[in-house]
Amino acid sequence: MITALEFLKSSANNFDFHWEFIMQSTAIKKMELKQKIAQLPEKKLAEVESFLKRLLSKEIEPKKPINLKGIWENKGFENISDLDSELKSIRRELEESILKKRTEV
Asked: Is the distance from CB of 5 to CB of 83 less than 8 angstroms?
């Protein structure tokens, strides 16, 4: 049996999977924005709120749902013995990597 991390690293080329892409995910961008907003002086928060309301008030086309059933079938995940603990380990490593990069800047 291989670990989830070994599987993901070995299959990276097959899926054009790049670790840098993960680092620039939407969730990370949102976290960065939250941190920047938290650093703003109180009098600037009204401007940010007004800007966000204006952005959110624009008509946004609702996205059509996509059926993801079976998307991970036959990709090798069935060969991972303890997927939950492997995912937790990968998340922990990713979090440490993100925090390390932030302190280097």
From this structure: no
